[in-house]
Structures are given as C-alpha cells and as structure tokens.
Amino acid sequence: MKEKMKLGLIQMITYKDKEMSLDKAAENIKQLADQGADMVVLPEMFNCPYETQRFPQYAEPEGGPTWQRMQQVARDNHIYLVCGSIAEIEDGNIYNTSFVFDRDGNQIGKHRKIHMFDINIENGQYFKESETLEAGDQATVFETEYGTIGLAICYDVRFPELSRMMVDRGAKMLIYPAAFNMTTGPAHWELLFRTRAVDNQVFTVGCAPARDYSLSYISYGNSIVVDPWGDVLGRLDDSEGYLLGEIDFGEVSHIREQLPIIKQLRKDVYHK
Q1: Among the options 24, 110, 113, 172, which is catalytic?
Q2: Looking at beta carbons, which pairs linking 251-259 to residues 24 or more positions away fall under 8 Å?
Q3: Distance (Å, rounded) from C-alpha 118 to C-alpha 80?
Q4: What's the pLDDT tens digit per position in 51-95?
Q5: Which of 45, 126, 193, 205 could be 175's S-S partner, Cβ–Cβ 3.0 to 4.6 Å?
Q6: Residues whose CB falls within 8 Å of the CB of residue 50, separated by 6 or more in sequence, listed in order
Q7: What are the Cα distances from residue 108, in Å, to 137, 172, 222, 236?
C-alpha cells in the first residue's frame, strides 16, 4: 500500500450556467493532474450557486450530465476525483451528494449529506436546508491504493460521532467538501478541522467554493488541510485558487504510536 499521495484542492467560484462551472472544474483538475496530483477534491455544490431555492432546477440523477463529465475527467487525467457535491435527485427527493471516482473512472464512493444545515443565529443568519433537501443516512468510506478515506459534507464535520464512525472503519483521512458562511466560517472553520484531526489522529480536508459577494449565501472559502497532529499544512484565503501538496499517510501511525488515543478508547464504557 502506498503511503505518499499528492493531493489537490480546487477553490472556485460557481456560475448560474452549469456548463461554465463544469468547464472550470475540468480545466482546474487537468492543471493539477499535470502537476502530479493523485487525488483532486472539488467544493460543495461545485456546479451551481449555493442557494437552496436553486437546487431543484440544478438537480440531476446519479449518472446524469455532471456525473458523466466528472467520470470522464477522472479517467482522462488518471486521478482519484472527489466531486465536491451536487444536488442529486432520486424518486422526487433532492440530496446534497458527493461522488468519488477512481483513476479509471469507476465510481468508488457516494455520500449524501447526513446533517441538514438548519440554523437561526441571533445576528440574522437564517438558513434551512431541510426545506429543499432530504438527509442521507449512511457514513461513507472508500478504498484507494493509499488506504481507506472517509467522506462527509460540510455541516457533517460538526458531529464527532460521524467522524469516529469513519475512523472506526479504517479512514486515515476525512474529506469534507464544504461551504461555511461568513458567520460560521470565521468562528469555527479552522477550529473544527483541527479538532477532528486531533480527535481521530487523521488528516482532515475542507474544500470550499471561493467567495462570491453577488450571491445571497456567501462562502467563507479558506479551503484547508490539517495533519494528524493538528497542524495546518495548507490554507487558502477567500479567492479562487488551489492547494497542492504531499500527504504522508505514514504520519497517521507515527502519531498514534506516540499518543495511542485510538488504542485507548474505552468503548466498553461509552455506551453505558
């Protein structure tokens, strides 16, 4: 099993024209692949603006146009591709869904966002995903030549129970396509990704859209990668750009040998 992987994150603005967003994603993926990326991650709702009222008009089924385009991009560039998320429709229900493809374009993972972002913060920040979206009900991991990787979406990162489930299933990295806003981002974005990394002694990854002040929902940006010790390996600002760097999965076992938290879990106590 390989221990070192070159990981790329794309922080991009999305457009009302879905094809423009897909073209931009494909162009950026190729640029990172040409620089040696083994895996590329896209942001949450990368093919449409992050506005709940728009999700029904952008929704498409598994195997639809976005799925097909990203499958081809993964195959053409011979990379693992974590397709941020899109609005997926099935049996009349709409989900916030992330698909994962391997180097040959095979779908090897699918996660439907489990926790709906329904908030009402005192300063006027109101948002209710459940008005449009249905919740998923499965923790998600997928297998690669580097080992097991966990996948969840945005608000899911706030729930340590979910991250521990993925780690219990062998995940050495937790990837979250995400779009925190201008209230929750400055307050909790880095804190949460560092906390989940330290809690579980894994790499954590947050890939966000770039900030666009023309939208009603403004993404915080700040895509981030954190190592198993809780150190930030890379972080963007609010504008379009990418992160590209090496992940050494050997660090997971190295940290766990020094500080054996996972071995010391008292599961015989926690459920009582």
Answers
A1: 113
A2: 251/203, 251/227, 252/172, 252/201, 252/202, 252/203, 252/228, 255/201, 255/228, 255/229, 256/201, 256/228, 259/201
A3: 32
A4: 888 899 999 999 999 999 999 999 999 999 999 999 999 999 999
A5: 205
A6: 14, 44, 179, 209, 215, 217, 219
A7: 18, 17, 27, 28
Q: Which of 44, 88, 129, 134 is catalytic?
A: 44
Q: How many C-beta atoms lie closer than 10 Å to residue 269's C-beta?
A: 7
Retrieve residue 85's tokens. Answer: 């998320």
| Annotation says 207 is catalytic | no
Phi-psi region of 221 (alpha: psi -120 to 50; beta: other; left: phi over 0): left
Mean per-residue pLDDT, 250-267: 95
Residues 179/219, Cβ–Cβ less than 8 Å? yes
Tokens matching residue 82: 């974590």
CATH number of 4-270: 3.60.110.10
Q: Is 154 a catalytic residue?
A: yes
Q: What are the residue ranges spanned by the domains of the chain? A: 4-270
Which string of b and e fits 43-73 if b means at least 16 CB within 10 Å? bbbbbbbbebebbeebbbeeeeebbebbbeb
For residue 27, is it left (φ>0), alpha (ψ between -120 and 50) or beta?
alpha
Q: Is 16 a catalytic residue?
A: no
147 has a pLDDT exceeding 90: yes
